[in-house]
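TL;DR need structure tokens for one chain.
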Amino acid sequence: MQSSFPNVTTNLALNFLNSKLVSHGKIIDLIDSKDSLRHWAETPHQKDIEYNLQLSIFNSCLDQIEDVSPIIAFRNDVQELLFEIINEEKSVFYLKNMIEENLINNPLSVIFVENHAMYVPAKDGLEGIKSIILLSLIDLIETGQVDSLKRCDNPECFSVFSNKSGRRKWCSMKICGNRNKVEQFEKRQNKKLG
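>> reply
TL;DR here they are.
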């Protein structure tokens, strides 16, 4: 089980999707068991209260989960759809349609945190988890961030983030950005020696 997750955005759905990494050419799934899924759901974002509230709701849905394979399959399907949208192979219409189809039979409730309304799934387990992720994706659509989604410039990386400035290249400087800087430095050093 991974001790920390690369939560590189303040969007719950994107961080959930970014729980699959590549290291030394090998795919590492950070969510491979109920324990690792719970560990992800207990990794708060240091600066975002709403994100942490969503996490606590996500965590409450986990009690009904025994097999995480349907959750991983759902994550992979959503991730693939976002890649197709980023690559302009599909439009946001497909994401909206997928959200509508998944939420049509999953009622939502409202809870108030101070004066802020939060939508929460009425069901636990897989359907509740899917609803929370889909609600987070709705936020990307409503705020227009879906139009600025970008995949990390590291071709091996699966991470997706909102590139609001238009200048961001890497999922994280700690993960792929520094790796790229080290590779570029080594190339320059080898060129000087060669």
